[in-house]
Amino acid sequence: MDISAYIRWFKDIRLADVPLVGGKTASLGELYSELTPEGVKVPNGFALTAAAYRDALTEAGAWDKLRPLLTGIDKRKISDLARRAAAARAIVYSATDRKDLRQQVAQAYRQLEQEYGRNTAVAVRSSATAEDLPTASFAGQHDSFLNIRGADELMDACRRCFASLFTDRAISYRIDNGFDHFKVALSVAVMKMVRSDLAASGVMFTLDTESGFQDVVFVTGAYGLGENVVQGIVDPDEFYVHKPTFNAGFRAVLSRRLGGKAKRMVYGRGHKTTRNVATAPNDRRRFCINDNEVLTLAGCAVLVEGHYSNRAGKPTPMDVEWAKDGKDGALYIIQARPETVASRRKPEALERYVLKTPGKAIAEGRAVGEKIAAGRIRLIKNERELGKFQPGEVLVATATSPDWEPVMKLAAAIVTDHGGRTCHAAIIARELGVPAVVGTGNFSKRAKTGAAVTISCAEGDIGHVFEGKLAYDVEQIATEGLQKPHTEIMVNLGNPEIAFKTALLPSDGVGLARMEFIINQHIGIHPMALARPNKVTSAQDRRKIKLLTARHKRPSDFFIERLSEGVGTIAAAFHPRPVIVRLSDFKTNEYANLLGGADFEPREENPMLGFRGAARYAHPAYAQGFAFECAALRRVRQTMGLTNLKIMIPFCRRVEEARKVIEAMAEHGLKRGEGDLEIFMMCEIPNNVILIDQFAELFDGFSIGSNDLTQLTLGVDRDSEIVAFDFDERDPGMLQMLSMAVRGAKRNRRHIGICGEAPANYPDIARFLAGLGIDSISVNPSSVLRTINIVREAEHDRAADRRVAS
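The chain above was modelled as a monomer; its predicted structure follows.
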C-alpha cells in the first residue's frame, strides 16, 4: 500500500480531484494553484485523502459494524437518530487511529512548519467526496476545527473530522438527498490559519442571496474568526459592490450596513482552541473593514467567479469565505464553492406574498426569503429541547447550529436573536424555502411557546414578527413567454430594499424613483439640520443626529452617503435600463417630521400647494439641502459609474423657475448633457401642459404625474375624503390634458411618459394613452404584468382599427 497517496498538497490538487479529496479541498487546490498568480491570496495546506478514510475503515472491519446501525434509520425519531449517529462516530474515530496515518500527517505538518514557522496553527476542515456539487452542497454538515497546533492535536482533529461523516445532521441530509451513506467518503483539509482572530473575516456571494440578482457581490464580515458569521452568532457588517461598473473600472461600494458584531471569536487558552469575547463598543460602532478592503474582496470574488464560469461555460455564482490577517494585514480567500440556492431560482416562476390585514409587530430583524408564514412558537433554548419540536411550528432561538437542521426542515418559519443574512439559520432557511427573521436582538427572551405569530419577509430588507395568525395571499406571477408591448412599461419605486427583486420583473426601467422614501426611511434627518446643526433647538433631536452621524467627518456626509447608496442601489438593480429619480418632493408638513425639521419648515395652511418641489431648490431656505441632494446624485453617476440615472424635477410651476433650478444643478456638477445626463420634468401642473413648448426647450423629457395633474385640473384636494368621489382621471377635461401633454412632447421630439397608477387601475386610460403614442407607462411593481397585458391588447386593437380604416 502506497501510504504517500494519502497526502496531497494544494499545489497538486484541481477541481477534477473531487473523488480524491472532496469538493471543498478540490476547490481550495484550484484556488491556490490557479488564482494565486492572479493576485488572490490563498493559505497553503494539504489534504488527507478520502482513500485514507476508506482504507482505515476496511482494515478495521468497520463497515460491518456501521451497516446495521444505519439500516432502517428513521430521521424523524430524533432520539434514536442521535443514539445511532453517536455509535457510528465512535466506530469511525477508533478505526482511523492508525500509526501510518499519524506518521504521514506529522511529516506533512512539519513541512508546513518549514514554510510558516514552528507550531503553526492550522484549520482542519472536513471535505466530503460529494461536497459542493450543484445538487448537494453538504455545507455545514461535517465538523471543522480551528487553531490546531502540533502533530498529535492535528491527528486527533483529523479523526474527529472523519467521524463527523455520521453527525445527526449529515445522516439526515443524505437521507433527504438520496445519498448512500457508504458511497460518500470524507477527506480532511489542513490549512494554515489566517490570524483573523486579530482582524476580521466573513462570507461573500457573487449575487444577492435573497433575490438571486447576479450583478452584485454581497460581502459580510465581523471581527475575529469566521465561525461566528457562519453560525449566526453575530450580526455582521454588510456591503454590496456592483459588478458591471466595477468591471468597467469604477471603484465604489454600492451600499453598506453596520452590524452589531457583539462578539468576536479569538484563539482559546489551555484545552479550548477558540473562545468568544465581547467586542469593544468603539469597534462595534465602526465597520470591520474599510471600503478599499471591500473592493479588494469584490475583485477577488469576481476573479473566482470568472475562473469557475470559464470552466462551466456560463456564469457560476459563488459562495466565498474570506479572512483578514491581523499580522500582515492581507486579505485571504479560504474557501469557495458554487452557490446552489438563489442562483437556481427560475425567474419565469415568480411568487408574491401579500399580507391581507395589518398586524401588531412584536419583533423585527433581517428578512430572509420573501415569503410569509404563520404558526405557533416553539422556543428552543438548547439541543435537548429539539425533540419537542412539532412540524409546522415557528422555531425561535438565540441562534441555530448545523445539528438543528433535521428540525429546521419541519419549521414553518425561523426567528433568531442573532445573525445576518449569511448566518447558518439564513443559509438553511433559504435552501429550504422557509421564511426567517434573523438578528431580532432579544425576541427569544420574550417569546412564549404556543403563542400564534405571523412571520413576514415580504416587505423588503426588514422582516417582521406579527402577533397572531394573519391572513395573506400568494400571487403566482407567470412571465415565461410574455409578449411585451411597443410602449415601454416601467416601474415606480422608492424602496431600495426591494430593488433587486423588482428588477427581475419584465420592465423597461424605473419611470419614477422616489427620493422621499430613502430620506424618510434611511436618513431620517432634515438636510438643513445637517447643514446648520446649531439651529436645531430640540436637545433630543441633537443627540439623535449626533449618534447617527458619528462616524462621518461632516454631518452632511451622512446624508450624501445614505442617499447615494439608496438611489445607487436602485440604479444598479436596473442597470443599464434607465432609472429616473425625482428630486425630493416632501411637503413642508412632511419635512417638519424629520429630525430637526420643525426648526426649518414654515407652517402652511395648504402644504400641497405651498413650498414644495422646484420652488425649494434655489431658495435660500433650502439651497444647502438641495446641494446635498445634488452631491449624492453626482456620486451615483460619477463615482459609482451609474450613468443610466436620469434626474427629474417635480412641481415646477413656471419656466423661469425651471431655468433657475437647472442653473443651480449645473453649479453643483449636474450639467444637462454632460456625461449624457438627461433632465426630465414632472408634468403635473396645468401650466406645464399649456407651456409645454417652452418647457421642452429646457428638458429632455416629461413624466405626467396624473395624481397632481388631476387634482389641479379638477380642483379636487386628493387628500380630502369628503370630495374624493370627484377625483377621476377619466374626466373628459383630464383626457384633454393628457392628450395635450403627449402631443406637445411629441411635437418637440421629447420623451413623454406617465408615472401614476391610472393606466393600471383603468384599462381605458391605458388604451387611450397607447392610442396617443405615449412613450412609457410607469406603475407600481404589483401592476407591471397586468399593465403589460392591457397595453399590448390596446396596441393590438389600435392596429386592427387602422387596418379597418385603411
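The longest strand covers residues 216-223.
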